[in-house]
Write a structure and sequence with these properties.
Layout (H helix, E strand, L loop, with lengths): L6 E5 L3 H13 L3 E5 L2 H7 L7 E5 L7 H9 L9 E5 L4 H9 L3 E4 L9 H11 L10
Parallel strand pairs: 1-2, 1-3, 3-4, 4-5
């Protein structure tokens, strides 16, 4: 019997980064669904609930922090853990992300893939089998 893979939604407007993140997650054993805009992902949440959302902070249709506010205000999805990705490295963004109970990963020239094991713990948090927050 095949084990059901945890589903991770990846929201990233740069298609090369989107595909790279999805590939790394799939190689780590997760199922993924990619979105280049926030609003289609939010619409999909009405019918599908992933175990984790990997969210870019700077999206063309909606700011990543605004997406967090929308998710936090909806009881149906407010417990889904979020890993926020950003090219910005300022501390204020990271602290704001933590205010929403989210882990913020800064991306620069190289993606720090050391957060992948943390994504396993985050997926468990969505099902109540791990800590309720996925902040590192």
């Amino acid at each position: 019997m095949e084990k059901v893979k945890k589903m991770i939604f990846v929201v990233e407007d740069e298609s090369d980064i989107l595909e790279l993140v999805r590939m790394k997650l799939e190689n780590a054993g997760f199922a993924t669904r990619g979105f280049e805009l926030a609003k289609p992902m939010l619409a999909t949440l009405k019918s599908e609930h992933p175990d984790l959302i990997v969210l870019d902070l700077m999206l063309p249709d909606m700011d990543g922090l605004e997406v967090c506010k929308v998710l936090k205000s909806d009881n149906a999805v407010d417990k889904i853990p979020i890993v926020m990705l950003t090219a910005r490295s300022d501390l204020d963004d990271k602290l704001i992300g933590l205010e929403y109970g989210r882990m913020t990963i800064s991306l620069s020239r190289s993606i720090p893939w050391n957060w992948l094991p943390e994504s396993r713990r985050c997926c468990g948090a969505a099902t109540g089998k791990a800590a309720k927050t996925c902040c590192a």
